[in-house]
């Protein structure tokens, strides 16, 4: 199984439960500060999900999104939940996927009124393309189509603030229309999640919202008619398919980055340049055909346990040489110990958990190029067990 892990966050218990039901035997993961996540694989899928509940509001969403990113080092983050529609062509139960997130409460108050100063985050091109592919495929809807109209999927801006909008005539509603008239939906957490992802080397983040009301004063009525539950189910179904596709994309990328082979087998030759200490590897050529290997060291052992033991020894050498400080060394060794224990105690080996630990090591030793390259090779070796 793949080690690609996706963090999925929700604001409401009903949203959390809709995603949790799609996980196979989720296990509790306690953060040192008390936050509880559940981690599991999608039923029948190749994707690991770390699921968390952030509560309402952009502030708590930002804090707990940052915490989840640091804890799990995910390949992407998805926020899933409900929202109010701001345009009539977006139907109840439809899914809105954000292309932009507006943090609409920023502004300046002057004598002639309040003037908007929004912050905007744009979804990454790659994540947007994957989400659109999922929408076109339509297989994500699955059994939903057997019970009711297949929900539509809309791509466009989403406005995120600190209020529940339930009027079309209030001053606040008029202000939203005046300044954010292209927003398809309004909600309360997307801006915080987008900010946290932006601060983490622009981690891909996708905000998926099921439309549960029209933000027009009829929210109580639509809630009584159970539109919130329907919207949650639709958004969760789309999120699961999106997560699987995001994880598959990362697997293909890892195969190329860490083994020199394209995921679609268009590149059949191995290309790996490795330099040790003060050595430099340079290849200059007009045309290169076939495989080239220029290496100052041997490949890692074929056995993952031996390879991880070798990494532990290399960490000791790097610390002794002054390339790693003590805190980084101890943190990296702890992750290697987790990886070894997982290999010994899971049958078949939980390669996803092992890969996650090794990716954390790669992040810790990233400033030491040779160590990072060795960790990447071992990650490829572990993923080969899948």
TrEMBL record:
Residues 6-242 form the Nucleoside phosphorylase domain. It comes from the Bacteria. Signal peptide: none annotated. It holds the Pfam family PNP_UDP_1. This is 5'-methylthioadenosine/S-adenosylhomocysteine nucleosidase. It comes from Actinomadura miaoliensis.
